[in-house]
Write a sequence for this structure.
């Protein structure tokens, strides 16, 4: 099933609105991560004397572990808009599974997902939408519009936090983690947005019947604004596929290597492109289709990253099809990130 946007973003009087239907399980990493936060401070005290001064001068730098350095690299990429939230979630998950399998099992355990996601009620997910509102003006604005969702002849309005809490309580699924997640993220009836700022919230409705042909969303005083077409394509596959294997190397400032600690993501319209360690496998009928690879890597105590787009398998095959060239991916060093830090 694909939700194809007809209109998903509008600009009105300096306020930009964007709405995206999302699969609610995509929010699991966000909620789990938020619920691990703690407001406790580690306090330090300044002593104005010579002994304190010289003790501080003697402190040495410590080296971050590969694990924490790679997680720092992933966060830096997200904060600098080099990757999006979905890419960050996948990179973080792969790093944690590589370095701390116990933490991975705890964080990505299905029970923890049920404990953290308030949009999961009575063994089913609600239909969830992400709304991004950017105030490009120089004044604070009040958002107090009613949102109306229509599909298949039915009309829905966003479920309130009180309704969700009541239903979770009825199913014995309510807990503090879900209360925190709703307080942080669930759409309010009205709220202020400061000048030159952007907020991201989520709202949910009862599960939608995706056999309908479209979804529309409108604000009460502005008429229909957003629309998505719903397309479904089902087929039974009973075929044999042939894949071509390509070796991949990463170019680190002129040095080509497979010796880094690479975490790569493939983005492709075709389901027949796979990455296994340092090898890429492409199905022969998809050799002319372009795809993208993004890599976060730790190489020689430095964080590198690279995004290579429009890679096509046929570009790396010699005419006789018996010889294949290696695929080289150019990496950029994140100079702001250092392995050693002051204690």
């Amino acid at each position: 099933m694909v939700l194809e946007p007809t209109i998903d973003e509008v600009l009105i009087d300096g306020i930009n609105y964007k709405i995206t239907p999302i699969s609610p399980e995509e929010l699991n990493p966000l909620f789990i991560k938020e619920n691990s936060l703690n407001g406790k401070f580690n306090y330090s005290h300044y002593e104005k004397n010579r002994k304190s001064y010289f003790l501080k001068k003697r402190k040495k730098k410590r080296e971050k572990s590969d694990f924490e350095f790679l997680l720092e690299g992933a966060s830096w990429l997200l904060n600098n808009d080099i990757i999006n939230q979905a890419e960050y979630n996948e990179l973080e998950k792969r790093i944690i599974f590589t370095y701390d399998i116990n933490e991975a099992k705890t964080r990505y355990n299905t029970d923890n997902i049920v404990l953290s996601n308030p949009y999961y009620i009575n063994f089913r997910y609600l239909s969830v939408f992400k709304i991004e509102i950017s105030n490009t003006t120089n004044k604070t604005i009040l958002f107090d519009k009613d949102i109306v969702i229509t599909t298949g002849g039915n009309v829905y309005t966003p479920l309130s936090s009180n309704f969700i809490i009541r239903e979770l309580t009825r199913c014995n699924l309510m807990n503090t983690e879900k209360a925190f997640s709703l307080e942080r993220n669930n759409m309010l009836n009205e709220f202020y947005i400061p000048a030159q700022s952007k907020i991201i919230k989520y709202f949910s409705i009862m599960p939608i019947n995706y056999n309908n042909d479209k979804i529309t969303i409108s604000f009460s005083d502005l008429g229909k604004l957003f629309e998505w077409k719903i397309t479904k394509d089902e087929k039974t596959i009973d075929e044999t596929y042939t894949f071509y294997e390509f070796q991949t190397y990463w170019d680190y400032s002129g040095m080509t290597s497979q010796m880094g600690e690479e975490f790569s993501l493939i983005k492709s319209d075709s389901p027949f492109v796979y990455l296994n360690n340092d090898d890429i496998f492409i199905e022969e009928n998809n050799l002319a289709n372009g795809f993208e690879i993004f890599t976060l890597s730790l190489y020689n105590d430095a964080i590198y990253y690279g995004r290579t787009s429009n890679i096509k398998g046929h570009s790396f095959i010699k005419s006789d099809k018996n010889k294949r060239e290696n695929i080289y991916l150019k990496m950029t060093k994140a100079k702001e990130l250092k392995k050693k830090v002051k204690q």
Notes: Residues 85-99 form the longest helix (15 residues).
